[in-house]
Specification:
This protein is mainly α and 220 residues long. It has seven helices and no strands. It is 83% helix and 0% strand. Helix 1 packs antiparallel against helix 2. The N and C termini lie far apart (65 Å).
Length: 220
């Protein structure tokens, strides 16, 4: 099989699994948290994101370049840490070597995004702004994870908010990829970043809703 055929095969799988992730994630969002269908859609979404990231890394090494590879690491890191939060529900649950390793890789990847972004801005490439934003977000999350592994939070529901925030952030990355490919009528930076802006607002509101809900439940 030639390199072109290998690349095209990975591209087809990348697009197909990306579409699956885009479609099934809302199913996990609207179904009862912890219920059968929530878990079902969530598992499909996670493994679709794993395939998206894996194929993106292969394509990045073959042809597409450093930026795509770093964004793939960032996107999968969000989904991975969202799922891993479910395995560390007790406040005293210890992080595994996998948790430490993935967060360290994400921290290094975020440094790569920031370095790439700085170099792109010097060359007047607008993609540099996108790289700096993604690198800053990834670095902040990875740094916080490492700190949380070292000093676990006392809140018994900390895992829930990590899971919620990371899975929604991973979906923002999915929507961003769809926007970049299909919304060519938008300026490049807007095409990349509008899902992050609106998605972040959505995450803040959703987390506030659940904090108020849990507080009311505790008070009652």
């Amino acid at each position: 099989m030639t390199a072109d055929l290998i690349f095209q095969a990975h591209l087809i799988l990348h697009v197909a699994t990306g579409m699956v992730a885009l479609v099934v994630a809302p199913g996990a969002m609207i179904t009862r948290k912890g219920g059968r269908w929530h878990r079902c859609w969530g598992k499909i979404y996670f493994w679709s994101m794993a395939a998206v990231a894996g194929t993106a890394l292969v394509m990045a090494m073959m042809r597409s370049g450093l930026f795509l590879g770093l964004v793939a690491v960032f996107s999968f890191y969000l989904a991975f840490t969202g799922v891993r939060a479910l395995h560390r529900k007790p406040p005293d649950a210890q992080a595994t070597p996998w948790d430490w390793g993935v967060s360290l890789i994400a921290l290094l990847g975020s440094g790569g995004l920031i370095l790439f972004g700085g170099q792109a801005i010097v060359k007047a490439h607008t993609i540099g702004v996108v790289a700096l934003v993604f690198g800053g977000i990834s670095g902040g999350m990875a740094g916080r994870d490492l700190w949380r592994f070292w000093r676990p939070p006392d809140s018994p529901r900390a895992w829930f908010f990590v899971h919620l925030k990371r899975m929604l952030a991973a979906y923002i990355a999915t929507v961003s990829a769809f926007s970049v490919v299909n919304f060519s009528f938008l300026p490049p930076v807007v095409r990349w970043l509008w899902p992050t802006v609106f998605g972040t607002i959505g995450i803040i509101l959703w987390m506030r809703y659940y904090r108020q809900k849990f507080a009311a439940h505790s008070a009652g």
